[in-house]
Write a structure and sequence with these properties.
Elements: H1 13-19, H2 23-48, H3 56-74, E1 78-82, E2 85-90, E3 93-101, H4 118-127, H5 144-150, E4 162-171, E5 175-186, E6 192-200
């Protein structure tokens, strides 16, 4: 069965520049894949019958990655493995999904948790938008060698591959609240500076 829930839709110049001829299909398919991922995670949540430490978040994150990878394969695009996690890569643009809150929250308040893995930070530092020329921020206590390491591209992802943020909020009861995609730079305080973003519609869960 196709992973696509509807036909392609119109896309702004930014999406066409990033994803080429696949832009319209992606704009239509991404919300559907997030809704399907929520359905899987919600079913797991109900089966667990736990009031605390619900498996919803972990299941949702994995289901989203799997669904986006399946979407890329159906489009005959690339799926690349980075440290055990698959990333959909369309037209040299890697989709980076991240649930930044479990309740509706403005996108400008999105922030990485303090325990975010070095791999995730390096993905942004090496494949995301770079800071203005001349800035060399070592404020987070890194040595020069460690700083350079954060900016080394992942060979398995491709040195020329750029990160496209796919940020959303969701919870087990209400599903996906809001979806944003675009380009964001990770700052030293774990917040994000958006160079471009747009909101995608939310699809109804099955």
């Amino acid at each position: 069965m196709s992973v696509f829930g509807s036909d392609s839709v119109g896309s702004p110049a930014w999406a066409v520049e990033r994803f080429g001829r696949q832009a319209g299909k992606l704009a239509a398919a991404v919300p559907v894949q997030l809704a399907k991922a929520h359905s899987k995670a919600h079913a797991t949540h109900l089966t667990a019958e736990l009031k605390k430490r619900s498996p919803y978040g972990v299941t949702l994150a994995e289901a989203v990655r799997e669904n986006l990878a399946d979407m890329a394969r159906e489009l005959r695009e690339s799926v690349r493995d980075v440290r055990g996690y698959e990333y959909a890569v369309i037209n040299d643009s890697a989709l980076f999904p991240f649930r930044y809150a479990d309740k509706p929250k403005p996108i400008d308040r999105a922030r990485f948790p303090a325990d975010t893995s070095p791999t995730r930070r390096r993905l942004f530092r090496a494949h995301g938008p770079q800071p203005p020329e001349g800035l060399f921020d070592l404020s987070d206590g890194l040595t020069t060698q460690e700083y350079v390491g954060l900016h080394e591209a992942f060979e398995e992802l491709g040195a020329s591959t750029k990160l496209v943020c796919l940020f959303f909020t969701a919870d087990a009861k209400n599903g996906i609240h809001v979806i944003h995609w675009g380009e964001a730079r990770l700052e030293s305080d774990r917040t994000f500076t958006w160079l471009y973003r747009e909101q995608l519609p939310v699809a109804r869960a099955a």
